[in-house]
Amino acid sequence: MITLGSLFDGIGGWQIAAKRAGITPIWASEIEKFANALTKIRFPATEQLGDITKIDGGAIPPVDIVTMGSPCQDLSISGRREGLAGKRSGLFLRATEIIRQIQTRYHELYPKIVIWENVPGAFSTNRGADFQTVLETLTETSIPMPRYGKWANAGMVRSDKCNITWRTLDSQYWGVAQRRRRIFLVVDYTKGRTEEILFKPESLSRNIEQSQEKNVMLDMRLMQALTRTCST
């Protein structure tokens, strides 16, 4: 059984994707009352951990995959652009602390995969230094800024601890009737084949009508691919 923990769970989008891919949600963290009430109905077996600032990663069940769509308000181009120094978007760093606590408690065996989803504005806040911090925090190594001072929409970095791949994808090509660009970043502590998940050519259809007919959902596609990765 492959398991999931969802930080910044919202209304349970990643839990839905996990269930459809045969992955079992174990716990979730969310503070919004309406969202929690909804997910309690949809996923009664999922343990509700509440406020992320009060979670001890060493005291919660280990999971194979951790998802975290951390708050984007301070990273968005329509916001105040405070970046990771902002009170809301800075919670990304708290999420990574929880992941470190899990890894320490279970001797680096869990989690195997971490997925971070956020707005493309994360590439440019503080002149790109925030995205550099994201990469350095997750890899626990020094990552140089791009030569021309601008992060690409897709990329990959490796460290002794993990491999990271990221790609900016637009929901309009996944059967959703709106333009909604998001960064999907996958941290692979198994150093498996996660680059195939985000860089496989057929994973992004340019035919909107065809995508709608096939009901393609990016979250579920990622989960299905990660199921294969965690199983190998």
Helical residues, percent: 25-40%
Number of helices: 7
Query: Secondary-structure element order, as H and E?
Result: EHEHEEHEHEEEHHH
Give a quick account of the main beta sheet: strands, pairing sense, barrel closure: 8 strands, mixed
Number of strands: 8
Mean pLDDT: 85
- Helix/strand-derived category reads alpha/beta
- What is the first-to-last residue Cα distance? 13 Å
Task: List unreliable stretches of 5+ residues.
Answer: 202-217
Strand fraction equals 15-25%
Could you say which overall geometry the principal axes of the C-alpha atoms support?
globular
Strand line-up across the major sheet: 3-2-1-4-5-8-7-6
What does this entry show, briefly?
This protein has seven helices and eight strands; from the N terminus they run βαβαββαβαβββααα. The protein has 232 residues and is of the alpha/beta class. The model is unreliable at 202-217 (pLDDT under 50).
Name its key features.
8-stranded mixed beta sheet; alpha/beta; 30% helix
Could you explain the architecture of this structure?
There is one protein chain. This protein has 232 residues and is of the alpha/beta class. 30% of the residues lie in helices and 19% in strands. It has helices at residues 13-20, 33-42, 91-105, 129-139, 195-199, 208-214, 218-231, and strands at residues 3-7, 24-28, 47-48, 65-68, 113-118, 154-158, 163-170, 181-188. Strands 3-2-1-4-5-8-7-6 form an 8-stranded mixed β-sheet, sandwiched between helices. Helix 1 packs across helix 7.
